[in-house]
Design goal:
Resuscitation-promoting factor rpfb fold; four-stranded mixed sheet; alpha+beta; 7 helices
Length: 352
């Protein structure tokens, strides 16, 4: 074979070598595109060409370039895998005042985690790690809230009643000497709440609204005055101590006044004595056999005190005017001698 023919054949061999290199590049580029699109490319092993064969240098160069591109593709795939892992986030535990919550977050630091969870902290709150601390998988971040609030409280000290015995007052009678006033105090407390529970309390202000004043009451202990001794009665209606009144009209029928007029006459007293009796008992009870004094308790037409004294004249002393009149005339006769004598005492002392 001539040299010209050999050269021609050598050129024919070299052309395919360049063609193989171009094909290799295109194949690698396609592999890169396949990896970027999310596919998986498997590179099969290639037998290196014989170094003594024509075009071996070109083939080796193409193989080296293929290895370099393969490494770049592998790096790109790994980079995409890492990006997917970062987007999925890290799992952490966030505890707010003892309430735990499991979160998956893309936050990079503790501060970003709290912001993304909507947790606002201030200078009084306590966080288990500095806000700039990077987050790691499985990390627990605890937040304890600390709040300071003011509480206003009003306390009332109720007054008491102090009783003082007083001999100048009748027994059972009460008289208020000093009005009672409740004591009122207003206090402001500053309270520290940690994790929702009170951990501190201090008084920041206190004012006395009103001082307590106890009520003072005087209670009477004096016994009722004994009935005065009867004054000596004059034998006749002309006694200067006896009262003198116009003659009363003679009552008729079975009224209490008619009963009294008959009893006065039966005792030998004149009509003037009945006239005095009529005025006296009109003043005392208005001749009402059920009249009762609301203050002293005196009862009946003659206003006996107590009313039970009239039981000596009859057991029906509560309802029978005749029984009351019988007792009343006996009382007047024993103390004052006559009805006019009793009326005279009543006029000067206010009672008989």
């Amino acid at each position: 074979m001539s040299d010209a023919v050999r050269r021609a054949r050598h050129r024919e061999v070299a052309a395919p070598a360049n063609h193989v290199r171009t094909v290799a590049r295109r194949g690698l580029h396609a592999a890169v595109l396949a990896v970027i699109a999310g596919g998986t490319v498997a590179f099969a092993g290639t037998t290196a060409p014989d170094a003594s064969a024509p075009g071996a240098a070109v083939t080796a160069s193409a193989s080296a370039e293929a290895v370099s591109i393969d490494r770049a593709v592998a790096g790109l795939a790994a980079s995409r895998f890492e990006a997917r892992t970062s987007l999925e986030g890290v799992a952490v535990e966030l505890v707010i005042d003892g309430a735990a919550e499991q979160l998956t977050t893309q936050a990079a630091t503790v501060a970003e985690l709290l912001t993304s969870a909507g947790v606002l902290v201030d200078q009084d709150d306590v966080v288990s790690a500095p806000l700039s601390t990077p987050l790691t998988a499985g990390m627990t971040v605890e937040v304890t809230t600390v709040d300071v609030v003011d509480e206003h409280v009003t306390d009332t000290d109720e007054h008491e009643t102090v009783e003082e015995e007083d001999e100048s007052l009748p027994r059972g009678e009460r008289e208020v000497v000093t009005e009672g006033v409740d004591g009122v105090t207003a206090t402001t407390y500053r309270i520290t709440m940690t994790g929702g529970e009170e951990t501190g309390r201090e008084v920041v202000a206190r004012a006395v609204v009103s001082e307590r004043v106890d009520e003072v009451v005087r209670v009477g202990t004096a016994e009722p005055e004994p009935a005065p001794e009867p004054e000596p009665a004059a034998p006749s209606s002309g006694d200067s101590s006896a009262a003198s009144v116009p003659a009363a009209a003679a009552p008729t029928g079975g009224s209490p006044k008619a009963i009294a007029a008959d009893m006065v006459a039966a005792r030998g007293w004149g009509s003037d004595q009945y006239s005095c009796l009529e005025v006296l008992w009109e003043r005392e009870s208005n001749w009402n056999h059920t009249a009762q004094n609301p203050s002293s308790g005196a009862y009946g037409i003659p206003q006996s005190l107590p009313g039970s004294k009239m039981a000596s004249a009859g057991s029906d002393w509560r309802t029978n005017p005749a029984t009351q009149i019988t007792w009343g005339l006996g009382y007047i006769s024993g103390r004052y001698g006559t009805p006019c004598g009793a009326l005279g005492h009543s006029n000067s002392h206010g009672w008989y």
